[in-house]
Amino acid sequence: MPKLILIGGDLAGGKSRYANILGDKYNLLVINKDNLKEIAGDNFFAKNREENKKLSVLSFDIMKYIIYKNKDTLVLESNFKDYEMEELKKITKELNYEVLSLVFKGDDKVLHERFLKRLNENRHYVHKSEDFTDIKDFSKMLEGLRKVEYIGKKIFVDCTNFKYQEDKSIFLEVEDFLKMSLK
Which of 13, 48, 63, 145 shows the greatest Cβ crowding within 10 Å of its Cβ? Predict the structure, then answer.
């Protein structure tokens, strides 16, 4: 039975890095929606916010395609939207996937500072289409992300600091998930 690990939640929580840590530790394929969006953006330059949103939809469609073609355990990382989680719910049910969701949530102020710092680094242009320089706008975006109903078994991760990256209890839960199968 195929297994799917979803890593989602707050912006600037370290989701991509943690997905790669899991991928390396357990030899799993990691699909990061932002990486797909960057590849698409390099080939089809988005001139405005609406075109950038189309790159996001395309990236998620590629993720869905990979799920359908996948035969092994897979890690998907994104700040998933409601409609995306609904589609994932249907697909995983149809294909009989076991699902583990790691849901990242942290302190708004800390995450906002981290987000602003990343903006000043050499970030790909596709990640700079929304202006969250005001913490109120940033917190509003987080509110929406926090309403997403994740599927499967859920592990809630406090991403205010990066201690979770070495939290053995999370690794043990992931290992248990990788070993188990539905009867």
Answer: 13
Domain count along the chain: 1
pTM here is: 0.93
Q: The sheet that has 153-158: what strands, in order across it? A: 29-32, 74-77, 3-9, 98-105, 153-158
Backbone phi, then psi, for 171, in 5-degree steps? -60, -40
Residues near 16 by Cβ (< 8 Å), separated by ≥ 6?
32, 34, 77
When comparing pLDDT for 166 and 182, which is higher? 166
Main-chain dihedrals φ then ψ at residue 71, nearest 5 degrees: -120, -10
Q: Residue 158 CB: number of other CB atoms within 10 A? A: 13
Collect contacts of 126-130 with beta carbons under 8 A, ≥24 apart.
126/34, 126/37, 126/38, 126/40, 126/41, 126/46, 126/52, 126/55, 127/34, 129/46, 129/48, 129/49, 129/52, 130/49
- Full domain range(s) for residue 44: 3-179
Q: What is the CATH number of the domain that holds 86?
A: 3.40.50.300
Tell me what the mean pLDDT of segment 76-83 comes to: 96
Closest CA to 99 of 11, 181, 13: 181
Cα separation of 81 and 88, whole Å?
11
